[in-house]
From TrEMBL:
Residues 4-413 form the Ketosynthase family 3 (KS3) domain. Pfam families: Acyl_transf_1 (PF00698), KAsynt_C_assoc (PF16197), ketoacyl-synt (PF00109), Ketoacyl-synt_C (PF02801), PP-binding (PF00550). This is Type I polyketide synthase. Residues 860-900 are annotated as: Disordered. The keyword DNA-binding does not apply. It comes from Streptomyces kaempferi.
Length: 984
């Protein structure tokens, strides 16, 4: 299939009667379900009676306004069509394989088909109750604009009203916007909510209303229209763009056409000739012949005249020589006539049919109307599901408006893409999930667990990759590693059910992350360290090979092969330092490809060489020469070792003085001192230290170097290494040689050689690092968490995360994935693609976001009653009812036993203007980010505050604007205004 001028349907979401979501919709269609029923109790009012039947959505009153930062008063004034569209748009974008927040600021467009606003009919005639919120909430045009505003989309945004063809005309406009290059992504939608009996009365007077509220398309029993609710959203992209981005393609839109009846048999009467013309035009634009079209999702209202005219028009186009007739059907038999959403309902049905390669039977088709003369017109009614062949299938979708605006779209099955086989055992992935509150996170964990449990057990990597693309961007985050979907489902279910488990795996980044990498020196090497990771990770394998290539000319043999052979020779002085350097460098480069780059680095002893490469101070070849020189020089040293002492340097001073040949090697912490010397000297020193009640431990190193002040050893290392050219560090480097940050210094070769003989001042260097770089995460790049253990014993800030991507000889890809997940929890946005093989980077269907159903907004525009006034809560807010917004650091700190009248007045004004529950508003709440205030609400708030000021002073907007950071900041402004008699 040519991708030029083809548009892919990459995301879907819908809410139709008895079908909340795409899976429920498909199930309803495949089982031939009937979604028609009585009018819900909460909609009954003037004009409606108990006999009304139709297709009604039962979630019209629920809306997660906190998720979209919409104040309760504004949410209550919004047309339910706007509320439903916002949530559907979010879920459709997720279904397209992209996080909705990733489109913020982009050229994405929104086109919504909508037949006016029955909400406006109910409310805008009561002039005494009109408010700015009701004005915006009742506008049909705002159905599209709300989506663009709340998702921060900058492309075209418009509502389309062509009566019942509105949403398919919106698709037509959206397709053209994509093909013209105006947008790169488009949301096309349709919405209809039955709130008044008016249009039903019109249908009845025109003789078009079905007595039982059911549409019976193309049936002998056809007797009129049954009105229905519905909302559907499709996400469209140019086909080539979708394929390039590995998005799932449900179907391809090959062409669309729109026309008008013109002056026909009446403004509301259909025209056979115009319907015929629009179908033929769409086929021409799609480049297909009528005999290629396997089935058509017809408009099919179930009115006697409408069905006859439509079949005559389709017959004129399709009555050509063909192997089998063109099948027709209409979803209106299942869900009724969704009017402004009718076209999108048919489009989604058709896209799903092409995707699943089966077309559902058309309800009421068993009693075919013989007057339609289907057989002689090359048509057949879908009396049973139609299985589609494996090759490309072409289908049509028709939608006709009462005023004569007709639309037709030509769809084709998605191109078959080559599937890359996954070699080897399943590898771990990091499944991510984010939500706006902790409770929402728990709710969505449960939904994901249930959805995964229904899948056949399989490799979890592609599911995890999809979650990384889709389920990120919200403030509360969770991440879990797993190798298969059953394991992942169990993990998610456990986390959702156990508050303690959830607390361990979830986090919320309140400030930008800062990372510090720690590089260990000799002593923590292990045979076979990272060998399993080497086998499982292409990334790590490539970078360890690079490090080995750099070292081999100087070491004479392969460090990599020694590691993979699980050879204990790695403990020898000749190999320990090169092996640790290779592992540290490979881990650094692997994390860099995953989008994880340190803000500061710190090395212990010769670990500073790997840190210097990470900081951009040394090149890999120069560092490799230095490492090899250190190893060669150490190999020739006499036997000796190092002794770790649980003591301060001052407590060991006497022992050092009493034992010539004993040296201070390192100060690793307030009570962590390392001594070096020959084996005999260390034995004597250990005995003396034990006699003084001090604990000691021999370290696994075969010689004593650090602290010896052996200038000859340092000179030999410098000679072996040759000239080394360092450059200014690109990132902060803490020097354990000096015990401080290096700043602008450029060390010479002597500096690097002295790492072998000068004491390591790790504790001082770590203290400088924590003070000046203020990292939120410490990551150790070595086979043991040695430096993390030292850091943990120090005075680390609360909440700092300690991570170790390669723990021990058994370190695997799972450990690396867990580290990346831990960084994500801390606010890092990894380059997730690099964690997965190309074969795993394919979009899988995940459960859509589950919004809160706790807030209900009825059929009247009255805001829900706010809580009764109470004493102001001035404690820092941990979480509001919505809970999605972080507390603002500003605001006064008023003791609870000293009420603040200004704060009380501001809080009550905010509660009144926004109709928030009282417990959601406190000094820390931010007016814009947390409470959803806009310019209109700010002016209403200004008026309320002016009324409450004792002096009745006017507040100017320039005075007010700087104080709108938070409720507390506004209270401080009011307090100052009151104390100065109305001047600031």
């Amino acid at each position: 299939m040519a991708t030029v001028n083809a548009v892919a349907v990459v995301g879907l979401d819908c809410v139709f009667p008895a079908a909340h979501g795409v899976e429920a919709y498909w199930d309803l269609l495949m089982r031939g379900g009937d979604a028609i029923g009585p009018l819900p109790e909460d909609r009954r009012g003037p004009g409606f009676d108990d006999t009304v039947e139709g297709g009604f959505v039962d979630t019209v009153t629920t809306f997660d306004n906190d998720f979209f930062t919409i104040a309760p008063r504004e949410a209550a004034a919004m047309d339910p069509q706007q509320r439903l569209l916002l949530q559907c748009a979010w879920r459709a974008l997720e279904d397209s394989g992209r996080a909705p927040s990733a489109l913020a600021g982009s050229d994405a467009g929104v086109f919504v088909g909508v037949m006016g606003s029955e909400w406006a009919q109910l409310h805008m005639g009561d002039y005494a109750r009109i408010t700015p919120q009701l004005g915006a909430g009742s506008s049909a045009g705002m159905t599209a604009n709300r989506i663009s505003y709340h998702l921060d989309l900058k492309g075209p945004s418009l509502a389309v009203d062509t009566a019942c063809s509105s949403s398919l005309v919106a698709v037509h406009l959206a397709v053209n916007s994509l093909l013209s290059g105006e947008c790169s992504t488009v949301l096309a939608a349709g919405v209809n909510i039955v709130l008044t009996p008016a249009l039903g009365m019109v249908y009845q007077q025109m003789g078009l209303k079905a007595p039982d509220g059911r549409c019976k398309p193309f049936s002998m029993d056809s007797d009129g229209i049954g009105r229905s609710d519905g909302v559907g959203v499709v996400v469209l992209r140019r086909l080539q763009d979708a394929l390039d981005d590995h998005q799932r393609v449900y179907a391809v839109i090959r062409g669309t056409a729109v026309n008008q009846d013109g002056r026909s048999n009446g403004v509301s009467a259909p025209s056979r000739w115009s319907q015929q013309a629009v179908v033929a035009a769409a086929y021409r634009r799609a480049g297909v012949d009528a005999d290629q079209v396997r089935f058509v999702e017809a408009h099919g209202t179930g009115t006697a005249l409408g069905d006859i005219i439509e079949c005559a028009a389709l017959g004129e186009v399709h009555a050509v020589p063909r192997d089998e007739p063109c099948a027709i059907g209409s979803v209106k038999g299942n869900i009724g006539h969704t009017e402004g959403a009718a076209g999108i309902a048919g489009l989604i049905k058709t896209a799903l049919a092409l995707h699943h390669r089966i077309v559902p039977a058309s309800r009421f088709a068993t009693r075919e109307n013989p007057q339609l003369r289907l057989a002689e017109r090359g048509l057949s009614l879908l009396k049973a599901p139609l299985r589609l062949p494996a090759e490309e299938v072409v289908a049509g979708v028709s939608s006709f408006g009462m005023g004569g605006t007709n639309a037709h779209a030509v769809l084709a099955s998605a191109p078959r893409m080559p599937v890359t086989a996954v070699r080897g055992p399943a590898t771990a992935g990091a499944f991510t999930l984010s939500a706006d509150t902790p409770e929402a996170l728990r709710r969505n964990l449960t939904a994901q667990a249930e959805a995964l449990a229904r899948r056949p057990r399989g490799d979890a990597a592609s599911v995890c990759w999809t979650s990384n693309q889709v389920k990120t961007g919200l403030p509360y985050r969770a991440v879990f590693t797993a190798r298969d979907t059953a394991e992942l489902a169990d993990t998610l279910r456990t986390a959702a059910a156990d508050e303690h488990t959830l607390a361990r795996v979830t986090d919320r980044a309140l400030r930008p992350p800062a990372l510090a990498f720690l590089y260990p020196g000799q002593g923590c090497q292990e045979p076979g360290m990272t060998a399993a990771l080497y086998r499982e990770s292409v990334l790590y394998r490539r970078h360890l090979d690079d490090a080995d290539d750099a070292l081999r000319p100087h070491t004479g043999d392969s460090v990599r092969d020694l590691i993979l052979a699980d050879d204990p020779a790695i403990h020898h002085a000749r190999w320990a330092q090169p092996a640790l350097f290779a592992v540290a460098h490979a881990l650094t480069k692997t994390l860099a490809e995953l989008g994880v780059v340190p803000d500061a680095v710190l090395g212990h002893g010769t670990g500073e060489l790997a840190a210097a490469v990470a900081a951009g101070m040394l090149t890999l070849p120069d560092a490799a020469r230095l490492v090899a020189a250190h190893a060669t020089a150490a190999h020739d040293l006499p036997d000796g070792g190092m002794l770790s002492v649980r003591a301060t340097p001052q407590e060991t001073a006497g022992i050092l003085a009493a034992h010539p040949g004993l040296f201070l090697a390192a100060v690793d912490g307030p009570h962590d001192t390392v001594l070096s010397g020959t084996a005999d000297v260390l034995r004597q020193a250990a005995a003396d230290l034990a006699a003084h009640g001090l604990n000691t431990r021999r370290l696994p190193v075969p010689h004593a170097a650090q602290g010896s002040a052996d200038t000859a050893l340092a000179a030999r290392i410098a000679a072996l290494a040759g000239p080394v050219t360092a450059t200014p560090a690109r990132i902060a480097l803490a020097s354990a040689r000096h015990g401080r940050m290096l700043r602008d210094e450029i060390p010479d070769t002597a500096y690097w050689a002295d790492l072998a003989v000068q004491p390591v001042r790790f504790a001082d260097a770590l203290s400088a690092l924590m003070t000046e770089a203020a990292p939120t995460c410490l990551v150790e790049l070595g086979p043991a968490a040695h430096l993390l253990s030292l850091a943990r014993q120090g005075d680390l800030p609360t909440g700092i995360r300690l991570l170790h991507p390669a723990p021990g000889r058994a370190a695997t890809f799972t450990d690396l994935a867990e580290t990346v997940g831990g960084l994500y929890l801390s606010g890092v946005e990894p380059c997730w693609d690099a964690l997965y093989e190309p074969a795993h980077r394919r979009t899988e269907r995940l459960a859509p976001y589950v919004f809160s159903g706790a807030h209900r907004f009825g059929q009247t525009a009255a805001a829900p009653p706010a809580a009764q006034p109470a004493a102001p809560d001035t404690t820092p807010r941990q979480e509001s009812t919505g809970g999605s917004r972080p507390p603002h650091p500003g605001g006064p700190d008023t003791p609870a036993d000293r009420p603040d009248p200004a704060l009380s007045a501001v809080i009550e004004a905010v509660v009144e203007v926004g109709a928030y529950a009282r417990e959601q508003v406190n000094a820390e709440a931010r007016l814009y980010e947390d409470l959803g205030f806009d310019s209109v609400m700010i002016m209403q708030l200004k008026n309320r505050i002016e009324q409450q000021l004792p002096q009745g002073a006017d507040i100017t907007v320039p005075q007010l604007l700087p104080a709108l950071k938070s409720v507390g900041a506004l209270a401080a402004f009011v307090r100052e205004l009151t104390s100065t008699g109305g001047t600031v």
